Amino acid sequence: MSGVTESNQNLGAISGEGARQKTPVIAKQALIPFILVALLFPLWGFANDITNPLVKAFKDIFLISNAQSSMVQFAFYLGYGIMALPAAIFIRKYSYKSGILLGLALYAVGAILFLPASMLGEFNYFLIALCVLTCGLALLETTANPYILSMGSPETATQRLNLAQAFNPIGSLTGMWVASTYILNQLQVEEFRQAERAAHPEYAQMLPSKVDGELTKALVELSQNQPVAHSAMQAADLNTVMWPYITIACVVIGLFVLFALVKLPNTINHASPLTLQELKNTLGRLLSNDSYREGVIAQALYVGAQIMCWTFIIHYGVISVGLTAGEAQQYNMIAMFIFLASRFICTFLLGFIRPGHLLMLLSAGGIMSLSGAIYLGGMLGLYCLIATSACMSLMFPTIYGIALNKLGDDASIGSAGLVMAIVGGALMPPLQGTIIDGEAWISSIPSVQMSFILPLLCFIGIAIYGYRTNSRHGI
């Protein structure tokens, strides 16, 4: 993986200087490999955003708490923490292509494991399947990001990465649409909730949070009074959840065959295993680098904030506004459209604004929009929560580029550390779920709204990193 080092030495081009050079972003001989590797970027976007709604779906299907259902995100993002560093070592020893093939294989296996998990009806088996799937995603991300950086001139490396990253929201939007159309809107448990709502006109006079509690209570009573009917409904809903994952497994297997047959350029200068002493020395240098060390923390905060905002937007819509889960998911899709549009706008702005300064501005916007989501509530608060996606659009690649700036030979392992930081998405959603399950801190503000104090704090941390990067390192 050390072949990316030359590309990373000049990642200062993130400021947009490379955009003014005559060097092409993608050389002609690298166009086909670039397109093939860019096809991988929608895969983790799809997996992320078809999985986010499962937190709410599994809560109702298995009748568990928000904190328990948030273990979906813990299991999903745990795979990144487990696999990122081994992935970097594996790629260094073999090749980028080997990393892609192994990543696709694990992705397909994890998706296929939804079949036995659905048949057995065990929540923990779904968690295992998700963890295996994301071990594959960790391999793909650890491979694809530096591979894209290495496919051409260092002057255009960050532009190339941002271009490839633009394919990611396409997968995210597809995942959201599939989740809304083929999962949330097809669940029998959701049909039951709507039938209960129609049977009780008095619910129209209640706060949405109170109605949600009553509907959950009705589901619990059904499971106790009619266990056979409830078990049949649960089995049908788990079958509904399963099929999109089986379908994506087939797509991934097709990509595995394609990559196995196509010859890709090997941009690794030397494919040799990393000795233990070399690894210790590399980690020591990375940990002593302020920009990198703080960048890993900022990346963990960003991923945690992103996952919390996109996962619990459904809870916000259901509990604070009174929408159905399917309706709330539609607003999640709007948030993704805003995210995609903002990514192109912010990429353009990088030609005029330093990355650290841009991070500060985006974080400030996120702090303001989340403050509105917390204190305003209702549809206005939901609009504020949606607006937060505009502020998150370019944070991941910007932090990635800043942290790897001028790392030289250490960039290969440094890249793995930044992918490992995605584990922030595993640690924070359960904390937010616990806040939602608890008592409201302020009687007039539902706990689901107050729970967004966590991503707000994450944006404060990212703003500090942007300030330090801009003022101390001039990036």
Can you offer a commentary on this structure?
With 475 residues, the chain is an all-alpha fold. It has one domain (2-264, 272-472): Up-down Bundle (Growth Hormone, Chain: A). The protein has helices at 5-9, 31-38, 41-51, 54-62, 66-69, 71-93, 96-112, 114-120, 123-149, 157-165, 168-183, 188-199, 208-225, 227-261, 276-287, 290-311, 313-321, 325-349, 355-375, 378-392, 395-403, 411-420, 424-437, 447-450, 453-472. The longest helix has 35 residues, at 227-261. Mean pLDDT is 86; it is low at 1-21.
Number of strands: 0
Assembly state of the chains shown: single chain
Which regions contain 5 or more consecutive residues with pLDDT less than 50? 1-21
CATH homologous superfamily - what is it? MFS general substrate transporter like domains
What order do the helices and strands follow? Answer: HHHHHHHHHHHHHHHHHHHHHHHHH
The first-level CATH class is given as Mainly Alpha
CATH fold-level assignment: Growth Hormone, Chain: A
Mean of residue pLDDT values: 86
Q: Any idea what the shape is?
A: globular
Number of domains: 1
In percent, how much strand structure appears in the residues? under 5%
Radius of gyration: 22 Å
Query: Could you say which structural class the secondary elements and strand pairing correspond to?
Result: mainly alpha
